[in-house]
Amino acid sequence: MRYHRIPDETVRRLPIYLRGLMISANQGMEHISSRSLADFVGVNSWQIRKDFSYFGDFGTRGVGYNIVKLAREIKKILRLDIIRKAALVGVGDLGSALLAYPGFAAYGLDIVAAFEVDPKKIGKTLGGVKIEDFARIETLARRGISLAVVAVPGTAAQETVDKLVEAGIRGVLNFAPCKVLAPKRVKVITLDIAMELARLPYYMPVGGSSEPPKAGKLSQ
Fold first, then answer.
1. 120, 191, 124: which is closest to 157 by C-alpha?
2. Does residue 204 form part of some domain?
3. Theoretical Cys-Cys bridge with 140: which of 55, 148, 167, 197, CB 3.0 to 4.6 Å?
């Protein structure tokens, strides 16, 4: 099922709700209220109800949400109800960590291929995945791989994405510290870890104060 005119912020929150539901299920819970889920994931309860209202009525008054059923519905909405194969490009420190991370499986994501340009890494196996020559990137479509994770230096990011688009990739998670361009048919999400980290000091106490600095005139 395809949903139209759903705010991007709502889509961003759905995996957060899904994670909260899965943890709750692992704790033996069968039902959860919007308020309890809100406390669990750090989102207002009215926001949860509004987000879910785009897709239907999942709760029961006085009972709450059936956790297993709601998790299944969210997976269906996010198209995580089937296994999605993904390819990793760039097996440096970050890429190696991504290959070793077991958490993708819970969301139906499976990194089944890894590519590198460094001949010293090609042919090795990491996390159960054999590292291949980037020249073989053109094989992705016939292998049923439509998602890609890019963990290459910024100078190589755009060329890498261009090659992935040519190979039939429809979704890219870009860890390179730069913006990359792609056709509208290809969804690109860029996650710059350094930029996210750079936001944190703003919220840290300064001189014993617990408040972030107030806006004011910049020095000339």
1. 191
2. no
3. 167
Kindly write down the DSSP assignment for every residue of 99-148, as one continuous string: HH-GGGGGGTEEEEEEEES-TTTTT-EETTEEEEEGGGGGGTGGGT--EE
Look up the CATH number of the domain holding residue 14. 1.10.10.10
| Residue whose entry in the numeric block shows the structure tokens 């919007």 | 34
Q: Residue for token digits 């519905």?
A: 73
Task: Give me the phi and psi of 193, to 5 degrees please.
Answer: -60, -40
Q: How many residues does the chain have?
A: 220
The angle, 0 to 180 degrees and rounded to 10, between the axes of the packed helices 8-26 and 45-53 is: 110
Measuring CA to CA, which residue among 152, 139, 80, 81 is closest to residue 113?
139
* Count of structural domains, the chain: 2
pLDDT digits (tens, 9 = 90+) for 16-62: 999 999 999 999 999 999 889 998 888 899 999 999 988 877 877 77
* pLDDT tens digits along 168-199: 999 999 999 899 999 999 999 999 888 888 98
